[in-house]
Write a structure and sequence with these properties.
126 residues, mainly beta, eight-stranded antiparallel beta sheet, 2 helices, globular
């Protein structure tokens, strides 16, 4: 099960301008010179446009891609997580396959709305 979060990339910018949306794939920690560093492995989503969608008021994102159109994994410190994020797939006009499971949704869709209506914190962020 993968969770999505807002990652703080520039705290000097307001709201989503200073945040990125990421999908968490793993938690781990390592020790270096006696200090423990808790980290996460993430895949970042890229924002589409420089502002929220004018019809929904929600930002639109798609999975970021690295070389050869494959997912780009990044390791960051866990303190960079700002808040949980909820993504709503853009479903399109076709029916969903009946065997589609909820845990495949991040692989089955290519574009998502960042749901700002999940709670008051998300509403202020996104």
């Amino acid at each position: 099960r993968n969770n999505c979060v807002f990652v703080n990339t520039d705290s000097s910018l307001p709201g989503m301008q200073g945040l990125e949306v990421a999908c968490i794939h793993a938690f781990f920690s390592f020790q270096y010179w006696g200090e423990v560093y808790p980290c996460i492995v993430i895949c970042l989503f890229n924002k589409i446009g420089n502002s929220a969608d004018k019809d929904t008021g929600m930002w639109v994102v798609h999975p970021g891609e690295g070389a050869n159109n494959t997912a780009e994994y990044v390791i960051i410190h866990i303190d960079a997580i700002y808040h949980a994020a909820h993504l709503i797939p853009m479903y399109g006009t076709e029916f969903l396959p009946p065997d589609l499971k909820f845990y495949h949704s991040y692989d089955a869709f290519h574009t998502y709305y960042v749901n700002k209506y999940t709670d008051n914190h998300a509403f202020e962020i996104a």
